[in-house]
Write a structure and sequence with these properties.
369 residues, alpha/beta, 6-stranded mixed beta sheet, 5-stranded mixed beta sheet, globular
Length: 369
Amino acid sequence: MSAARPLTTLRAIAVTAALPLLLTACGYGSEAKKEDDKAEVAATGDKKLSASEVRIGYFPNLTHATALVGLQEGLIEKELNGTKIKPQSFNAGPSEIEALNGGSLDIGFIGPSPSINGYVKSKGQNLRIISGSASGGVKLVVNPDKIKTLDDLKGKKIATPQKGNTQDVAFLNWISEKGWKVDPESGKGDVSVVRTDNKVTPDAFKQGSIDGAWVPEPTASKLVSDGGSVLLDETALWPDKKFVITNVIVSQKFLKEHADVVEAVLKGTVKTNEWINANPDKAKASANAKLAAEGGKPLDAKVIDPAWQSILVTDDPLAGTLKTESDWAVKAKLIEQPDLAGIYDLTLLNKVLKAAGKPEVSDAGLGTK
């Protein structure tokens, strides 16, 4: 694979190219998208689908750009031919998994760690990963007055969003590879890992109660706008500079009973990702308009512009990187070795990709049999 390129450079590229808990939009301002700029996508046909509505969950995060833009622009809805979307916004992966497993959610955009946890806890019975959505968008941002090099992290207080979430696992693994020790449960050790909700991380940073944070966008860029410095972009830790930050998951019950609806949603996400990469500036404004609708005001340009550039939307679930992240969680003793066989079902996605003339994607041997 080639190195991931920023969204702003992907104008004509069809991308084939993530224990969560990111941020509710705490925003600051880019120009909102005008109605007449909305992309137009024809419905797939006149035949009604098998469900009258589909309940789709997502986070108000830039790493959920496919959901934000797809909903804002109507790109997903236009593939559903009358089936209504009931969107549901979540602030934490466990609550989204609970909704999926409890039957109040059908499809969700979510990170790799909660996907793994939800799959394992249900013994493989309740969900499937059916597509990728995004890669990247995670940075280590520090107070440059206290931390100038990576070695300076020893003895400092560094925030992650939640114990065992995707960024927490990555940071614990990085600490381990440095030869430092941290208790994964308490976060105490050579580095103090402070589990902090992304909504309050910027205030904690400004008050000096943390010295830095390993966080997703746009929290990372918000910290930079408050005087922080990016010490490490997580993409640098991955061989191909790509790693899953957001998946699309589905209730197995809904997939079995309404495969046509799932396929239509995937047509919408594929077209959304294509539109984002062909229209990065319009897509950025669209995502910001959706964040403004969620949080009351848009993100400031000095926050959204660098954040947007660090995220790659992709249909590819980057399955091999999910397995790596699972191995890191096991190494950190946050989970026992999971059996991930069958966590992916990419049948419908590959059908959609093939019909669109795009390369099929791999489940890295973790697909349904």
